[in-house]
Amino acid sequence: MPERRDVRAVSVPGLLLVLIGAVLELVSFRLLDWYSAPTRADSTSEITFSALHDSADQLSGAGAATAYFDWLSWLLLIALVAIGVAANLPIPRADLLRVIAFLLGLVGLAATYFAIAQLHNAQVSAGAENHNLFYNSTWGLWLAFLGFAAGAVGAVIGYRSKT
After folding, report:
1. Sorting pLDDT into bands at 50, 70 and 90, what band is 8?
2. What CA–CA distance (Å, rounded) separates 51 from 99?
């Protein structure tokens, strides 16, 4: 009887999804507004990732949001891309890396939600209007969620070990 070998191949769809997720995150973090606010004489109507970072730095009670907008989001993105790409390559521990990258994508989704929720609560405590968390949200915020989700899915859809 012929011996079956462990055959693995690079998962192009998985790699593409991980890389598309990374591009969506980069566009979200660097180019798009996360919220649109009514224009006032003393403020801007564009609320970007960078503006949220500045807001989190200035508000007390936004500790996790400060970490997210400062370094955590970037760390999660880099880890997801590195491990997600490796999970789609024909290497011995790819199945374990698939699980880790998927979990990193979920953590990225949860951390994004938690950071904007905590920042929102700190802003309300400081006197801002209490709206829904997604009130006036724009493409930047939604692409941040979509980017982490695409990376997570891309990490798990690759070829499995065949025995």
Report:
1. low
2. 33
